[in-house]
Amino acid sequence: MIRFLPLVLKNVFRKKTRSVLTIASILLPLFVICILGTLLAALDADPSGGKGMFRLTVRHRISITNFLPEAYLPKIRQLPGVKEVTVMNWFGGKYVDNSAKNFFARFAIDPEPFLRVFDEATVVEGSTAEWMNDRSGLMVGQVLMGKYGWRLGQQITLKGDIFPGIYTFTIRAVFKGADESGVYFDRRVLEEAVPRFKGLVGLFWIKCDSVQTVERLPKEIDAMFENSPYPTKTETEKEFQNSWVSMLGNVRLLITSITTIIVLVILLIAANTMAMSARERVTEIAVLRTLGFQRGTILGLVLGESVLLSLFGGFLGVALFVLSFPGFKQGMLSSPMGGFAAGMRLFPGILALGFGITLLVGLLSGLVPAIRSAQRPIADGLRQVG
User: Fold this and answer.
1) Do residue 255 and residue 310 come from a single domain?
2) Alpha-carbon distance 149 to 8, whole Å?
3) Counting beta carbons within 10 angstroms of the beta carbon of residue 6, is it exposed (0 to 12), middle (13 to 18) or buried (19 or more)?
4) In a domain, 217, yes or no
């Protein structure tokens, strides 16, 4: 069949306008499929490079908005397999205004244990010492620095809502490697400004010494506080992250459904194109049959055109996605979905799936026209020209 490749290529672009439009109709939907597939794969990705698999988070069982007593900290720390524990309070508030473009994660934490729990974070500007020694110091993610054009030493003002008041912080350190779309500051600032919150914790983050400890501790911790006024829910880092995504609904089902619909649309478009092409060439195919072309050869020629047309669109769609991915990820990192986008990368499996889909579309869309063309009697094909 390789010797017939020039003939297949010539037939693919016989109707140039129609071929280009068909390729575009495959290219753009496939580009969207790659985006959706990447978002879906990012749900299971670990942006910490494997270090997140050793972390657990402990929160109030009823709601993440409920606080836990700080007195839980030493009890958790003494459990076998616990390397470090840190606390984290969601600050909320606003920067400039409440618009989505100015939303980013803002956490009050204990600086020293925080860096030991999230040990993939690396300070690239300023220093951890300057940040820790300045009670109003701010550690800012690298993505956020680029988004707002902030500089080291600049003062940032946040207006609190959960913790009422106006808070002015100075950027003392810039980090990369963790969630680079957030800011972190000493929680003592809030406790001094709003004393009633002293001793209350939103989240405990635990660094474990092994995967076995990660599997064992959740039941132990929750059982420890089962009958207390503040029951807990202990989760892995990935489970905790996915619980936030689940607030948007069944994201996996939604993305999968949209992808399936797009594939069906591509299939219908490609099938219509191949059916039109086959109908226009009934007589031509009959002539080829009279020249000695076998049914299998005709089947291969028509099916080859369909597959080749789909692969052109597939290759261009995947190439477009790869070229635009850095800008797409940067835009996601600068959005309120920045924490989720940290796990995004070019997944080879998604790119392979894209090519697989185009190959399947090419085969399915060209199969019926190819079979009909191969099986049509020569006399019927020649008669149609008259």
Assistant:
1) yes
2) 54
3) exposed
4) yes
- Is 344 part of a structural domain of the chain? yes
Contact 233, 59 (CB under 8 A): yes
Contact 312/23 with Cβ under 8 angstroms? Answer: yes
pLDDT of res. 386: 45
Q: Please give the pLDDT value at position 216.
A: 93
Q: State how far the Cα of 162 lies from the Cα of 106, in Å rounded to an integer.
A: 12
Q: Of 312, 380, 232, which Cα lies nearest the Cα of 30?
A: 312
89 and 192 both lie in a single domain: yes
Report which of 274, 199, 205, 284 is spatially closest to residue 237, judged by C-alpha positions.
Answer: 205
Q: How many whole angstroms separate alpha carbon 385 and alpha carbon 327?
A: 53
* Whether residue 91 is found in the same domain as residue 146: yes
Listed residues 195, 230, 265: the one ending a domain: 230
Residue with tokens 């990660």: 214
- List all residues 6 or more positions away from 86 whose beta carbon is below 8 Å from its beta carbon: 109, 110, 113, 114, 116, 117, 204, 205
Question: Is 261 part of any domain?
Answer: yes
Could you give the CA distance from residue 181 to residue 330 in angstroms, rounded to a whole number? 11
Other Cβ atoms less than 10 A from the Cβ of 1: the count is 11
Q: Are 73 and 87 in contact (CB under 8 A)?
A: yes
Range of the domain at 40: 2-46+249-385
Task: Take residue 140 and report the two structure tokens written for it.
Answer: 């800012």
| Alpha helices (runs of H) in the chain, residue ranges in sequence order | 5-12, 16-42, 72-77, 111-117, 128-133, 142-148, 188-193, 211-224, 237-246, 251-280, 282-290, 295-333, 338-341, 348-375, 378-385
* pLDDT at residue 189, as a whole number: 92
Q: Which of 230, 259, 276 is the last residue of a domain?
A: 230
| Phi (first) and psi of residue 188, to 5 degrees | -65, -25
162 and 262 together in one domain: no
Phi-psi region of 80 (alpha: psi -120 to 50; beta: other; left: phi over 0): beta
Higher pLDDT, 125 or 274: 125
Q: How far apart, in whole angstroms, are the C-alpha atoms of residue 87 and residue 67? A: 11
**Which residues, 6+ apart, have CB-to-CB distance to 366 below 8 Å?**
270, 271, 274, 302, 303, 305, 306, 307
Residue 164 domain flag? yes
Total domain count, the chain: 2
pLDDT tens profile 90-139 = 998 889 888 878 888 899 999 999 999 998 888 999 999 999 999 899 99
User: DSSP state, 95?
Assistant: B
